Amino acid sequence: MQPIHDTLQRLLAAVESVILGKPDVVRHALTAVLAGGHVLLEDVPGVGKTTLAHTLATALGCSFRRIQFTSDLLPSDILGVNVYSQREERFDFRPGPIFANVVLADEINRTTPKTQSSLLEAMNEGQVSLDDQTRALPAPFIVIATQNPQDYHGTYPLPESQLDRFMVRLRLGYPADAVERSILQGGGGKAPFERLTAQTTAQELLSIQAAVETVRVEPVVLEYLLALVHATRRAPHIELGVSTRGALAFQRAARARALLAGRDYVRPDDLKALAVPVLAHRLNLGGAGDGLLRPRAEAEQAIQRILESVPVPV
Known about the structure:
Elements lengths: L1 H15 L6 H12 L4 E4 L6 H12 L3 E5 L6 H5 E6 L4 E6 L6 E5 L6 H5 L2 H6 L1 E4 L2 E4 L5 E6 L12 H4 L4 E3 L6 H10 L15 H11 L6 H16 L9 H17 L7 H12 L13 H17 L5
């Protein structure tokens, strides 16, 4: 446990050296990665969403590809395509950019639902199916997607099935005055993540993800988790509560957060800290409009009310 803890602390420090003044966001993003989950960064342009994705990939020592989502993007542009070779008289598969350990799906809501749906199998099962053939994606496989909640023109809101595959939804927000001053004094220039060195390898990350599964969840803590999840299904102002997939993601994230803190057991505080980023985007409030800014705030407030109403085990 101690070697893993030391590695995680180095990893956390490396990411925080680039993403300044956002320790909670960094910890939540890293928690999702350690739990084998995907990350949705939903915020206005220019606050560091892409930089966070680059920084995580660099610090993790993993392969990285960026996909710029546009309205004319096709599933084959993401997954790859079979091309016929006249010389070999056969079809050769040319893999798309999704064949990487860390994939940045930039402005994911700018592409059509058909293209969005091409990610569902990849994000859930770590594989893609093309022309009756199934191909495994590199392991580990992590999608970090971004979208701008303020921009409605030419966008397609993510359906519930897509949102449910993201372990966490995070906002970076504007930096504090002192942090922004420090960034400006740095003068820009070379991207800060380019100074980083890898703190792990893909294989080491797989070992850490396996260690996450060994973190204990005592029965009383599991009952608290279930109470929070079930409360989202019974609340009168919530049309659709958290699914079983969401409950599993909640448990894995709590285990990863405990491991990141150097513990081999989950505490109720882990669940309380992760409830909003893990659960809020899985709620459907019903009649809430376009699924972006206002419903997001309402969903987060709904989770906060549930946290206040469900007794915390001692």
